[in-house]
Specification:
The protein has about 575 residues and is an alpha+beta fold. It contains 16 helices and 24 strands. The strands form 6 sheets. Strands 2, 11, 12, 13, 14, 15, 16, 17, 18, 19 and 20 form an 11-stranded mixed beta sheet that branches. It has a 4-stranded antiparallel beta sheet with strand order 5-6-10-9, with helices on one face. A 3-stranded antiparallel beta sheet has the order 1-22-23. Helix 8 (about 335-345) runs antiparallel to helix 11 and helix 15 (about 510-520) packs antiparallel against helix 16. It is globular and about 70 Å long.
Length: about 575
């Protein structure tokens, strides 16, 4: 498979009604976005407060958080934000994002040539947790291993689409040798990245790059990242325990270059989330210092402890325009009028109010605090679009449906082929599915849509192999429209998730506009091109937007410096302290 862009698990929501699950995530450092930081709450819930004497959980040297465990710590194959939480804690980085801003870490100095295509990084001398030196080759290998066609990494397309390293696509297609790729270690402490063309959205710092030892990877083979023994640490913490489906323990790494000034907590314990009631009871009883994601039903109960992070991504219904190989379904799902009918039939504000208390209804893809023509202006204010009304339009929906039936030769909706709506075996996703299917039935008379609930990993696998007709997806965005826009170019990471040439959507003008943005350094002009592309995708794309959302974490009032940032895919404990 090609790439699911750093495929953020929507799974982070599995155990309760988690609000900000993302199927795809962004590594655009310019995504300052909105982060979450907690210091002592002014008050605490009387029913949940426990004194340090009463608490059998963490001490001041330990921070315990309830979250969802990683899928895999194979750094070549990983596509989940849950894995990225672990990478952030256990690996050093060229530039470390903190609260939406990328700070140089291993990089000492760096420069960009006059063509804006060659970035040279001079690195500090650092080591793995066992004291073995880390070199520029380890950082280069982290990138080239994901591009290596023999590895079949789902991340390859994301690297190609987002950065455009010289010959990266050719190498991934087996058309050249790795030595010809614009990712090189010039010596032990000099890394050079060369782009095919200038990239106006890449400033050289907004990239997540960890070290990866090629010899260790070869030695571990398929076992890489499966257990503590199959994993190497280089960052603030060492992964010291991983009891599957139970907990992970991270122990402070004194060999990390900034260990004296950052990450003061000695041990971080991440307890596997189960059901929301159990998680809440553990938090209230002092067995945990934080819950990463609080379900909608528990927001009132934990109101004194909530910390929010706005999820800037788009959640919506994705259409498989290939119809799982069925010609009748493919024709229906590819029909613009049918997709418009489905979109106009929905009252987004009513749906979100009923289903997702932390959701925010949307009817476009670039919205919120995303910057526009100027850094301090908003894209949505600068560029309006023609789109479906937030509350829908039943009459218009019926007109579009009739047009679709006429085009496809159906006398009535009763003749339409059966469609399956794939989603997670999770209360909030199930409820969303039931609500959408019911609105389509009530407004359009559609009775041909059945809901296919699967465990999160199985649902994701089915989506990645086009075994669905409709799928409720979640795509992370950034501070600029570039991330979402590049998902949907022909062959893009989300558009053609299998890398087999099966793009769900293809439009030459759209592709041309997105290509032009990479070399357009005039911000206003670049944003204009993104706005034109957004309108095309609203009119033609196989995704109807429904909502974005807010993720709520719960953090005890004795914890300072907790930062969770969905843009960074990180639980950022850089300056966290537990003051019991």
């Amino acid at each position: 498979m090609k790439k699911l862009t750093v495929f953020a698990l929507a799974a982070a929501l599995a155990a309760a009604s988690f609000a900000s699950c993302g199927t795809y995530t962004d590594t655009d450092s310019s995504s300052a976005g909105s982060s979450s930081e907690a210091s002592a709450s002014e008050s605490s819930a009387e029913s949940g407060e426990a004194s340090s004497e009463e608490t059998s959980g963490s001490t001041a040297d330990e921070f315990t958080i309830i979250a969802t465990q990683p899928n895999t710590l194979n750094m070549i194959q990983s596509t989940s934000n849950l894995d990225n939480y672990a990478f952030y804690l256990t690996q050093e980085m060229l530039f470390r994002p903190y609260d939406g801003v990328y700070q140089p870490e291993v990089v000492d100095t760096w420069e960009v040539d006059d063509t804006n295509t060659v970035f040279t990084y001079h690195l500090k001398e650092t080591t793995w947790s066992d004291g073995t030196p880390i070199t520029a080759e380890d950082f280069a290998y982290y990138l080239t291993a994901q591009l290596d066609p023999n590895n079949g990494s789902a991340n390859a397309a994301f690297l190609i689409d987002t950065y455009g390293f010289l010959n990266a696509e050719a190498y991934n297609n087996g058309e050249c040798d790795v030595s010809e790729v614009g990712i090189k270690a010039l010596d032990d402490y000099t890394l050079e990245l060369t782009l095919e063309t200038p990239n106006a959205d890449f400033d050289g710092t907004n990239i997540k790059v960890y070290p990866l030892d090629a010899d260790f990877v070869a030695e571990q083979g398929e076992a890489l990242g499966g257990t503590v023994d199959n994993y190497m640490s280089s960052g603030p913490y060492v992964l010291s325990e991983w009891v599957y489906d139970s907990y992970l323990t991270y122990t402070k790494n004194d060999k990390w270059l900034n260990s004296d000034s950052q990450y003061p907590v000695e041990t971080v314990k991440m307890i596997q989330a189960t059901d929301a009631n159990t998680s809440t009871s553990m938090f209230e009883g002092g067995e945990a210092d934080a819950i990463l994601t609080v379900g909608n039903d528990y927001l009132d109960i934990l109101s004194d402890y909530l910390v929010e992070d706005v999820f800037s991504g788009t959640k919506g219904v994705q259409f498989n325009t290939y119809g799982q190989g069925d010609e009748a379904k493919a024709a229906l799902l590819s029909n613009k009028n049918f997709r418009m009918a489905m979109s106009y039939a929905l009252d987004r504000e009513a749906i979100v109010a009923a289903v997702d208390r932390s959701g925010i209804a949307i009817n476009r893809y670039n919205y919120g605090d995303m910057a526009g023509k100027e850094v301090d202006s908003k894209f949505a204010d600068d560029f309006s679009v023609e789109t479906v009304p937030m509350n829908g339009d039943a009459d218009k929906a019926k007109e579009y449906l009739q047009a679709a039936l006429d085009e496809l030769g159906y006398a009535s909706v009763d003749e339409l082929p059966a469609l399956s709506y794939l989603t997670f075996e999770n209360d909030s996703y199930r409820l969303m599915a039931e609500t959408l299917v019911d609105q389509w039935k009530q407004v359009l008379g559609l009775t041909n849509i059945t809901i296919d609930l699967k465990p999160i990993p199985d649902a994701i696998q089915s989506m990645m192999s086009y075994q669905y007709d409709l799928y409720y997806t979640s795509l992370s965005g950034g501070e600029t429209p570039s991330t979402f826009a590049k998902y949907w170019i022909t062959g893009g990471a989300v558009n053609d998730v299998t890398g087999s040439g099966m793009s769900l959507f293809s439009n030459e003008e759209y592709d041309s506009l997105i290509k032009s943005t990479s070399t357009e350094f005039d911000r206003a002009k670049r944003m204009e091109d993104y706005a034109k592309a957004e309108q095309i995708f609203i009119d033609e794309g196989p995704l109807i937007p429904i909502e974005t959302g807010v993720n709520y974490a719960a953090v005890a009032d004795y914890v300072d410096g907790f930062v969770y940032n969905s843009f960074d895919d990180a639980i950022e404990l850089d300056h966290l302290s537990v003051n019991k």
